[in-house]
Each structure stands twice: as structure tokens, then as C-alpha cells.
Amino acid sequence: ISLVNGTIECILGADGYYEDARYCNVYHHCIAGIDYIEYCPNQLAWNDRKKMCDWSVRTPSRIERRAIQR
């Protein structure tokens, strides 16, 4: 994957799940070069180590991110 203007750009062959650069409850599912934006359920955040949504206190992050309101 690569980061272009703060957004994920999926590259063919880089299938997988990736954290969002801005929001803790958003993650990206790259499949065949297409970025599918996914949202964690209420009060959960993306845990990039476990590759799943988890309680926010259990989600280590390199940066301070906020939750997107839907």
C-alpha cells in the first residue's frame, strides 16, 4: 500500500487490512488493488496488530487519532 494525500492507495498484490491515518475506528481492506473502507462498531477502534476492531484502550497507535462520527 502507499499513502497519497493522507489516504490509502491499494497496490495490486498488497491485499490485507490496514489502519486509517486519521480515524481510529476506520480501517481499509485492500483486495485486488481496490480500497474498501470499513468502520468498526460503536466504541471500538481498529487494532492494527490484531487486524481487528477492539476496545480503544487495547489499540496501540503510533499517532493520536480520533473517531469518525457516522
What form results from the Cα inertia axes?
globular
Share of helical residues: under 10%
Q: Structural class, judged by helices and strands?
A: mainly beta
Question: How much β-strand is present in the residues?
Answer: 35-45%
Quaternary structure of the protein: single chain
By DSSP, the count of extended strands is 7
**What separation lies between the terminal Cα atoms?**
26 Å
The SSE order reads EEEEEEE
* Discrete helix count: 0
Mean pLDDT: 81
Radius of gyration: 12 Å
The stretches of 5 or more residues where confidence is low (pLDDT under 50) are none
User: How is the biggest beta sheet arranged?
Assistant: 3 strands, antiparallel
Strand order, largest beta sheet: 3-4-5
Question: What can you tell me about this protein's structure?
Answer:
The protein has 70 residues and is mostly beta strands. The protein is 0% helix and 43% strand. It has no helices and seven strands. Strands 3-4-5 form a three-stranded antiparallel beta sheet, with no helix packed on it. A two-stranded antiparallel ribbon has the order 1-2. A two-stranded antiparallel ribbon has the order 6-7. A hairpin with a 2-residue loop joins strand 1 and strand 2 (7-9). 21% of the residues are buried. The model has no long low-confidence stretch (mean pLDDT 81).
Record the SSE blueprint.
Elements: E1 2-4, E2 7-9, E3 16-19, E4 26-31, E5 34-39, E6 44-47, E7 52-55
Antiparallel strand pairs: 1-2, 3-4, 4-5, 6-7
